[in-house]
Design goal:
Blueprint (H helix, E strand, L loop, with lengths): L1 H16 L13 E9 L2 E8 L6 E4 L4 E6 L2 E4 L15 E3 L3 E8 L1 H4 L5 E14 L2 E13 L1
């Protein structure tokens, strides 16, 4: 009983100490995304990988932006009626380092209004030609 009370008290302390933004947490690939130098027109996306992987991490130019509305994430509409055409380029995310990518979204979404957003980016872990897995990661940010 005493252990249960102690665990609950510790949990309460941790929850009250962690108010505000929650830092990104790495998964089994050791990847985290974060945003710096945020403006209504763009930001610097930081993609960080820690740990050993069997393969090479890559990403392309494509991304999505979602806005938090009533506590839920909703993809914001793109400009125009035509689908977005992304360049076919591969950005490498080297192991145990951080890679910065200047991101301008005005051609896709225009200028963002103040609010809470997240940028989604798909990364691929390529082990050999045709042998890869993909995961989408998110970097949360605020436009003021």
């Amino acid at each position: 009983m005493k252990k249960t009370v102690a665990v609950l008290m510790l949990l309460c302390l941790l929850l009250t100490a962690c108010q505000g933004e929650v830092p990104p947490v790495a998964d089994e690939w050791g990847v985290t995304l974060s945003a710096t130098e945020v403006t209504p027109k763009g930001m610097t996306l930081v993609m960080e990988q820690k740990g050993d992987l069997e393969g090479e991490l890559q990403t392309g130019s494509a991304f999505i932006i979602e806005k938090k509305v009533d506590g839920e994430w909703a993809e914001i509409p793109t400009l125009g009626e035509e689908p977005i055409v992304w360049t076919a380029i591969a950005y490498l995310v080297p192991q145990n380092t951080a890679t910065e990518l200047e991101t301008n979204w005005t051609f896709v979404y225009g200028t963002l209004e103040p609010g809470s957003y997240r940028l989604g980016k798909t990364l691929a872990l390529r082990r050999s030609p045709g042998d890869y897995d993909e995961k989408t990661y998110y970097a949360e940010f605020t436009v003021e």
